[in-house]
Amino acid sequence: MNSTRLYVPIFGLNGSYSSNLISLGNLSLTARFLAPISLFALSAFSDEDYRQQTEQICLITILVSVFFAIYIPLNTSIIKENLCVSYGFSKAIQVFSIITSIISTITLFFHNKQHDFSQINTLGFFMIIIGYNHLFTCYTFAQYIAGLGLLSSGTAIYFTKLHQHYLWTD
Questions:
Q1: Residue 101 in contact with residue 125, Cβ under 8 Å?
Q2: For 57-79, how does the pLDDT look when each residue is reduced to its tens digit (9 = 90+)?
Q3: Measured torsion, CA atoms of residues 49, 114, 128, 33, in degrees rounded to the nearest 10
């Protein structure tokens, strides 16, 4: 969803009002909400009690993200340097994302500690969060490379440890 920002220069949508630009802005905002909410749901509902409700949790996170994205006001006359449509409450959304990320990491830390899981998994999870936030807000190529590196290495660490835990490989 976040790559839809590239449609702004490809289709020449900057500086104009169009329903396509509103749709792209809503998609970008949905991605902005979906990432922290999904990561929070992943860490908060990771116990065995919630495994039967995975579909409901996924549906709820998507619906909540779309709901907030639709009701946040967009300013289609301003396209930021990172090709995002300007939107209202940007500082509040950023604070929400940071707080949700911190709570998710702390929740996963205590969950891993309680079940004697490796804390390297928590490190990978935190790297995923930081990498995604860098990618979403990057303005320079260096920030893009840093975000991509953190997201990729965090994903590799997280899924490797998850794979080792559940499949008992050595």
A1: no
A2: 999 999 999 999 999 998 888 88
A3: 50
Q: Classify burial at 9, counting beta carbons within 10 Å of its beta carbon; exposed 0-12, middle 13-18, buried 19 or more.
A: exposed
> 82, 69 in Cβ contact below 8 A?
no
pTM score > 0.90 for this model?
no
d(CA 18, CA 130): 33
Cα dihedral 137→129→157→162 (10° resolution): -140
Burial 139-150 (b: 16+ CB within 10 A, else e): eeeeeeebbeeb
CA geometry: angle 96, 81, 140, nearest 5 deg: 90
Phi and psi torsions of 15, nearest 5°:
80, 10
* Token pair for 76: 């289609």
Q: What radius of gyration do the chain's Cα atoms show?
A: 18
Sequence-distant (6+) residues with CB within 8 A of 87 are: 25, 29, 72, 73, 74, 75, 93
